[in-house]
Amino acid sequence: MRIAELLAAGLAALAFAAGAHAAQEPPDAAAIVRKADEVRFPDHGFEVEVDIESQLADGRTESRKYKVLSKGNENTLVMVVEPASERGQILLMKGRDLWIFLPNVSQPVRIGLAQRLTGQVANGDLARANFAGDYTPKLLRTEDIDGEPHYVLELTAVDRGVTYGKVMYWVRASNYWPHKAEFYSLSGRLLKTAHYRGYQQMAGRMRPTQLLMEDALRKGERSTLEYRNMKPRDLPDKVFTKDYLKRLQ
Fold first, then answer.
1. I need a surface site. Which of 93, 102, 147, 171 has the fewest CB within 10 A?
2. What pLDDT digit, counting tens, does each position of 73-86 carry?
């Protein structure tokens, strides 16, 4: 009887230890990135207004406003609202393909996700925010920031068609809130650093309402993106077609 009791106690201790280890085991890197993507933007149809103010090295500032319609991670429209002289310009993203439609020009022009949109903001920063689909993640370590543990991940581009060659990504462990990202070129040069700020309730959950992007190559140049009025939208596939865009211009 004593042997049976000892055996049962030993098995219980092993089960407890295994359970404690499982509880402490972090999720895999892909799950972290996917959950952080869901914090930044809904995974269903939505619209959001984006105001961008860029500070140039010579002290000048530039302000632009956009309206973004997005459905999942594969279809996005970016419409210029201001300046008025560029109103009617529309970016259409389908998958990793991106075109710009210009008023009075019959055919769209193919452009790259990495091309500059305004200030420190690349086309892909506004049109495509699918870290989970565009990069292969690796969890490097956990790092404390202001007393909060954060996952530190290295994201490597799945191919040359994505916006950046590599991203270093800091995500809060307790709730998967993105904290910071460093964006690198294919050659490994640091291009810019982004800080996710101003978490507020938008479209059903807490999300960052501000993104500060600082240029690593040109000191003093930065862009601040403010996200406003995010709300769910039922967006049929026809919205993301050339024929539909003609009606928007």
1. 147
2. 789 999 999 999 99
Predicted model pTM:
0.85
Distance between CA atoms of 73 and 91, rounded to whole angstroms? 15
Has residue 18 been placed in a domain? no
Number of domains observed in the structure of the chain: 1
Instruction: Tell me if 45 is assigned to some domain.
Output: yes
Range of the domain at 192: 29-248
38 burial type by CB count under 10 A (0-12 exposed, 13-18 middle, 19+ buried): middle
**Cα end-to-end span (Å), the chain:** 84
CATH code, domain carrying 132: 2.50.20.10
DSSP 143-161: EEETTEEEEEEEEEESSTT
